[in-house]
């Protein structure tokens, strides 16, 4: 095995996508193993690789890490994306948790029944424009800087640009009332490591389609 982190998940976004984003933003190359069958997943459990019988699984620095938040925290700390002190880390944690609440709605959207999809999309738009994006618009304006915390690129910035692009895929004009976020999106998208991740052929996964939903249900069926 090479020294690269090894990511085990399905060939789609899900709970692994923020991990891919963070590694890519840090300029870290990684390898991926894609689960396609329930047998592969069951073997990981049988072999004792999944502490809580859940993926994502990330093998890094001799550890077999599970639990998305723990993995992200480790990567952020390892690559100096987690603030300079406890206060900055607390701010990053708050912002990340807020963004994660919004991303959870987006994560579950492909699995919602057809008859509720429009209602769920309206909920995502309402939460994004009235609860979450106004917070970050205000923070950026008050900071008067390019980044959310300490005028330095951090995990929170990575989570926010991922969320902005994910919401825009569903609601293209969602940033129309948020000039600070529009500028933030432009700035982040042109950072070399992120720009590379946004190019075709990168490890970034496309929006979930029916095949991805079917694979998730097949791999994780009880």
TrEMBL record:
User: Does this UniProt record's set of keywords contain DNA-binding?
Assistant: no
Location of the GST C-terminal domain: 85-209
EC number(s) from the headed UniProt entry? 2.5.1.18
Annotated SUPFAM superfamilies: GST C-terminal domain-like, Thioredoxin-like
Can you give the residue ranges of the GST N-terminal domain? 3-83
Provide the alphabetized UniProt keywords. Transferase
Which GO BP terms, alphabetically?
A: glutathione metabolic process
The record, for InterPro entries, names: Glutathione-S-Trfase_C-like, Glutathione-S-Trfase_C_sf, Glutathione_S-Trfase, Glutathione_S-Trfase_N, GST_alpha, GST_C, GST_superfamily, Thioredoxin-like_sf
Which GO molecular function entries does the Swiss-Prot or TrEMBL record give? glutathione transferase activity
Q: What family is this?
A: Belongs to the GST superfamily. Alpha family.
The name of this protein is glutathione transferase
The record lists the lineage as:
Eukaryota, Metazoa, Chordata, Craniata, Vertebrata
